[in-house]
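Example 9 (inverse folding). The structure is encoded as follows.
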């Protein structure tokens, strides 16, 4: 019987945040105090995060999010794990919760029709339907829905330009999908803006489809942005569609190249992974900055000067002052803080 003690939470919420820096600090400190690890983006348009923690800590975290009226509608995709899926906590302020170059679009005002997993499953094979993967190359090359249309994009911000290639599909039913649903919110909104008539999105993305609909017809694995790198989705008719970048054998084992200057995301089988010491080429293997390979192919992102304890000392100082005032009041000592 499975008895995994940790949860991994994937979520997003489009909601206005006025003072992003203040909320970043509050949110960040809550994570520290409750041993939540992961990556969270705070922006004027909302929240986007993937975090991990013990089950009880994750329950507190979800309650914390839902207690804020701005984020009460947040839906969490929940998976279980035997350890933290992250080594650190990063809570950053950015202009968008997913870099899209589509800041003018507000999914709360207009977006594609949400399909629950079973609805998506029932609709996806109809003759007048096109299934559109809005993720990057390295993601859909590892795994995608059977018969899905993929786009040659390195980053989601390239999506608007690629839509020009889809003009002939404007009168079709277009079903968009991504990992957790967030990219589809703006991708489907942009398609509607460009004159597409009938646009849908898989609510909760591939992850929710796997959890609630068995993952049927999703071929390969789903790339995820934590130390698992790739996860199984299909429990009905699984199939490997990717091959090892080095030897060409069938492999769905995803690796980030050990050379940080390259850092390509590629399928590399375990044998080649060890032989190449985690690198995708001889040049990368011999690169002077190559990272040590431990067999996973996952490397913690560079913090770029990010201080995970920013604001914590300030709060501790405030708490010390409050405690000092309280103690001095109890002893009848007058302080400069008293009027």
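The amino acid assigned to each position is listed next.
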């Amino acid at each position: 019987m499975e008895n995994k003690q940790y949860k991994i939470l994937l979520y997003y919420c489009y909601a206005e945040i006025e003072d992003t820096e203040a909320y970043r600090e509050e949110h960040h400190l809550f994570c520290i105090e409750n041993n939540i690890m992961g990556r969270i983006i705070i922006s004027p348009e909302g929240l986007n995060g993937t975090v991990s923690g013990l089950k009880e800590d994750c329950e507190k975290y979800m309650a914390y999010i839902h207690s804020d009226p701005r984020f009460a509608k947040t839906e969490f995709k929940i998976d279980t794990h035997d350890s933290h899926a992250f080594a650190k906590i990063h809570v950053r302020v950015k202009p968008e919760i997913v870099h899209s170059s589509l800041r003018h679009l507000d999914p709360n005002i207009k977006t594609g029709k949400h399909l629950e997993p079973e609805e998506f499953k029932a609709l996806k094979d109809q003759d007048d339907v096109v299934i559109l993967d809005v993720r990057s190359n390295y993601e859909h090359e590892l795994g995608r829905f059977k018969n899905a249309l993929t786009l040659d994009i390195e980053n989601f911000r390239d999506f608007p330009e690629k839509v020009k290639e889809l003009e002939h599909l404007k009168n079709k039913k277009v079903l968009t999908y991504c990992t957790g649903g967030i990219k589809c919110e703006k991708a489907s909104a942009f398609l509607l803006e460009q004159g597409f008539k009938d646009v849908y999105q898989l609510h909760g993305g591939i992850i929710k489809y796997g959890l609630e609909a068995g993952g049927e017809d999703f071929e390969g694995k789903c790339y995820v942005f934590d130390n698992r790198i790739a996860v199984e989705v299909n429990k009905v008719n699984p199939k490997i569609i990717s091959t090892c970048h080095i030897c060409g054998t069938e492999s769905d084992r995803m690796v980030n190249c050990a050379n940080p200057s390259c850092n390509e995301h590629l399928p590399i089988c375990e044998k080649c992974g060890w032989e190449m010491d985690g690198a995708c080429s001889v040049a990368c293997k011999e690169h002077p900055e190559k990272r040590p390979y431990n067999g996973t192919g996952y490397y913690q992102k560079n913090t770029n000067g990010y201080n995970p304890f920013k604001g914590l000392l300030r709060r501790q100082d405030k708490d010390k002052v409050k405690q000092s005032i309280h103690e001095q009041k109890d002893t009848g000592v007058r302080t400069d803080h008293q009027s």
